[in-house]
Amino acid sequence: MDRLEAFKAIAAQAGRGELTFPTNIDASIKLQRALNDENCHIDLAAKLVQADPLLAARTVAIANSVAYNRSGMEISSVKTAVQRLGVRTLQSLVTSVIVRQLGTKIRNPLLKAKANQLWEHTAHVAALAQVIARRVSHVDPDTAMFAGIVHEVGGFYMLSQAESYPEVMEGDPEEWTAHGEVQIGRGVLQKLMIPENVFKAVEAMWEGMRALPPENLGDTLLLANDLSPIASPLHARPGATSVAAASTIDFAVGDGTLASIMEESAEEVKSLTAALLHN
Description:
The chain is mainly alpha-helical. It has 15 helices and two strands. Helix 9 packs across helix 10.
């Protein structure tokens, strides 16, 4: 089996919904479904979060980040953290746990290193997307963070399958972008019940088309990807700039510029990224 055949095999499984997830993901997916229920109130959400130590720690960390703790009042209670964040942000955090858990199955050191770098990249993109949405494109910041968390989920799944299909790590990175990312990514996004607007934003990222200044969620996601100081280890995205060149991206935003906004928001991005990376 060559690399393209391996991509096709994994993509076919994803298309049929026959995805192989680590067993610890099942509980997180059930939690995600519970939080998606419109009748899920804050008290119930807090109880569900407290049952998962990793999610509980990450929830408190995010609630204490600069992005969500404008008052500077640090908290240590999961329930208070849930009240501060709200159910929608919790949905993003549960998804971040699911994405991160895809790497727990990996034993090969090279693959694990790639998964760790991909998660660092993901955390930076999610944090940057949240700030860009709020300060620049004026799309919903929580949705933008969620889109950042899931934008590479197909890559995580591919890495989790690489020990069964070692061919996927052979060849040029462009082959993943051209033949694996879209087909596998769509299957995983569907399995995780990703909302249509986020799904379309990730598809726009796959196409590499965007407007500057960013006008919509897809533009916001692609700009965040470009500005991430940690590149994806899987590919150079079509239309994306290098990490070095991304520092030159600038444009007017109201009375300021993108560069001035990102400088003002640097501590916010750093704090939110660290909270997402919190284990």
